[in-house]
Write a structure and sequence with these properties.
- The structure is a homodimer of 407-residue chains.
- The first copy, chain A, has 407 residues and is of the alpha+beta class.
- Chain A has three domains: 12-108, Rossmann fold; 137-202, ATP-grasp fold, A domain (Dna Ligase, domain 1, 2-Layer Sandwich), CATH 3.30.1490.20; 208-402, ATP-grasp fold, B domain (D-amino Acid Aminotransferase, Chain A, domain 1), CATH 3.30.470.
- Chain A has helices at 31-43, 73-80, 95-103, 112-119, 121-130, 144-158, 249-266, 304-307, 312-320, 349-358, 387-402, and strands spanning 23-27, 46-51, 64-67, 85-88, 138-141, 165-169, 179-182, 198-202, 208-216, 222-224, 228-233, 236-242, 270-280, 286-294, 334-341, 363-366, 376-384.
- In chain A, the strands form three sheets. In chain A, strands 9, 10, 11, 12, 13, 14, 15, 16 and 17 form a nine-stranded antiparallel β-sheet that branches. The first copy, chain A, has a four-stranded parallel β-sheet with strand order 3-2-1-4, sandwiched between helices.
- In chain A, helix 3 (95-103) runs antiparallel to helix 4 (112-119) and helix 4 packs across helix 5 (121-130).
- The first copy, chain A, starts with 22 loop residues before the first strand and ends in a 5-residue tail after the last helix.
- Chains A and B meet through helix 1, helix 10 and strand 16 of A and helix 1, helix 10 and strand 16 of B.
Chain lengths: 407, 407
């Protein structure tokens, strides 16, 4: 163990005999934790979970579960005692608590100095701009008058009206929540009501959305997955295609390099998803702008479970333990991930049988969550040589499970 | 659920909300249970474990663990209450207990009438002979004099001496335990000391060992994995190559058909491993003889975790729940599994780092077991187009982890 989770002896006292394999403490019991546990089992890694309830997605399938509130420092401390490293299913743990754990001598990965860029969109934009990463034009705005001023500035640069603009609370948003598209200063009152600072961004006229996923370890080893296309419906990820079809080779390379550079500059440890807009300049030259960062396994990387030599989850585990990283290369020409959202009918099991019978190659990943309309309850992966076929199979299965496709 | 685990409503009362996914009760906490749980997580299946101790391989990673003795019927009954189906990590549960569970209305898969063929080598040989499956010549023997008589009979048929012979206790043996090779009647006293019936078999002069793995569901759907070559060292599986290199196509097809027929005739539900000897007739014609049967996921199928579209563990889960089976086809030209046995040095973690760094494509599966010399503590899978390379990588990793290779 010496030199792997640095500065700490492994928590071997908790297990009998000579086992020296480390314990990962995972904060948050959602599906990302569930799938990280799944990926850690073959690695022989011990997994300890801090979960809101015993019914959470990951808590159903893990052995060492602490039920408690991650917002409470003493709960976090008690949980972290006996763990070799702490990592996360979500970005909501308060920065000061992470600093306190570090002060206690517990490695936190990604660490609070990196994680703040995934927690606070204002900090993220400022830092990305500082390191020269291409971003949409943006400004922290205090009120609707500020929004109008920012719109006027964009209008002066581009011609046109400046609106519509995108407003985001700098903290707390996900899956389209905490995001507003406003067409005038009058429409801009709502985002300010939460009392959280608001970031205004130009509404990017993008060709499509991409994601560049990389994994970085504490000693600086890093791997890049192929850049993927991510298709959103109503602000929620619907389909991911790996690799992004028809993507300009130089642009793909540039996007991966950008993600690796962001990971290094921000000191990220573990999986980093860089969500990108692909845009075309007036002369037709393609380029990318950074939309969002996520410092954990990410929906745009779920395809790697069945489509890559090493999944994002396995590489996240390896990274936070400072183990050598696994090969991120694809195993198939095309892999497609389709998110399974809850539909109106709560029992998915009958639909599930039908999908298995229809497509014996289908890879299903269910999260053990109650079905609620629009809720992410699972995903499917398909792979093969023919993109049309691979896409059609994933879309059929996701639609059939949701109940929007009947045959 | 209706119609899948037949005759029982799903145990949904144990879980909140509308979740109707079934609960598998797994008897035995070894690595097969561990890897079955791992495979069940993406399927959304609830997993309940009956384990000898809380430290058993599977008990470390599962959420719903009952610690108790499977030989005690009341323990089994209490465990099975709330499970939709019972399946096994090993074949040691007494037949009368399985019948009692069935009488209670709990589906047991494989059922006791099938499982007895994997529990009792005498019953297995009698039944296989009855259905015309090719077996080594064999006889139940009562004492060394019986052994001598059987040897004399073989000598009369073949010329030669009849010896050496293989003696096996009909119950309780595994990994070379409960098996003796004797060169004379005088050497044949030991096997009779346990008071268990003894089976004598001719010592087959085989070319190599093969395994034909199939999975069968209650409604009779079945899939066959490619026939593999299994290399043993000191009676313990060392390396598995999928598919078996240079295997005669007709023989491979015949071996798969034989395994499917045995599964159907014996009413197997779940994974069935048919261990085979490949032999050559005097005229050079290759054929197979059945060596052993195992009715559960099997060491000769571990390669499927990384080498097949659907792993043996996922298909075992699907079969015992009567879900449609997944595609058993290989994903790579060659996949090699190398067993990791414990060596003299109890800490494997440092070696583990080295193996990961040396081969980023290596797939490691650790069981969370204490390292003891000769004990199976994990396995590695490698895959690719070049068999020599794939074999060398698996052998290096397995040897390095054990400590028999130093660089």
């Amino acid at each position: 163990m010496a030199g792997t989770v640095r500065g700490r002896a492994p928590a071997r006292g908790r297990y009998p005999g000579f086992v020296t394999f480390p314990v990962i403490g995972m904060v948050g019991g959602g599906q990302l934790a569930r799938m990280t546990h799944e990926a850690g089992i073959p690695l022989g890694i011990r997994f300890r979970l801090l979960s809101d309830t015993p019914q959470d997605s990951a808590a159903q399938v893990a052995g060492d579960v602490v039920v408690g509130d991650y917002r409470d420092l003493e709960t976090l401390r008690a949980f972290a005692h006996g763990c070799d490293v702490i990592t996360f299913d979500h970005e909501h743990v308060p920065t000061e608590h992470l600093r306190a754990l570090e002060a206690d001598g517990i490695p936190v990965r990604p660490g609070p100095e990196a994680l703040v860029h995934a927690q606070d969109k204002g900090v993220m934009r400022a830092r990305l701009t500082e390191i020269g990463a291409p971003c949409p034009r943006h400004r922290i705005v205090a009120d609707p008058a500020d929004v109008a001023a920012f719109a006027a500035e964009l209008a002066a640069e581009d011609g046109g009206e400046g609106f519509p603009l995108v407003l985001k609370t700098v903290r707390g948003g996900y899956d389209g929540k905490g995001v507003w598209i406003v067409r005038s200063a009058e429409e801009a009152a709502e985002p300010f009501r939460a009392g959280v600072p608001v970031l205004a961004e130009e509404k990017v006229d993008f060709v499509r959305e991409l994601a560049a996923n990389v994994v970085r370890s504490p000693h600086g080893q890093a791997v890049a997955y192929p850049v993927v296309e991510s298709q959103q419906v109503d602000g929620v990820c619907d389909t991911v295609i790996a690799p992004a079809p028809g993507l300009d080779e130089e642009l793909a390379l540039g996007a991966s390099e950008l993600a690796l550079r962001i990971a290094a500059e921000l000191g990220v440890v573990g999986h980093l998803a860089v969500e990108l807009f692909e845009v075309r300049a007036a002369d037709g030259t393609p380029r990318v702008l950074v939309n969002e960062l996520a410092m954990r396994p990410h929906n745009s990387g779920h395809w790697t479970q069945d489509g890559a030599v090493t999944s994002q989850f396995a590489n996240h585990v390896r990274a936070v333990l400072d183990l050598p990283l696994g090969d991120p290369r694809p195993r198939a020409r095309w892999t497609v991930m389709g998110n399974v959202l809850g539909g109106d009918y709560p029992d998915m099991y009958t639909a599930y049988l039908h999908c298995m019978a229809r497509d014996p190659q289908l890879k299903i990943h269910m999260y053990g969550k109650d079905v609620k309309p629009g809720r992410k309850v699972g995903h499917v992966n398909t792979y093969g040589d023919d993109l049309d076929d691979v896409l059609a199979r994933a879309r059929h299965a996701a639609g059939y499970l949701r109940g929007t496709i009947q045959e």
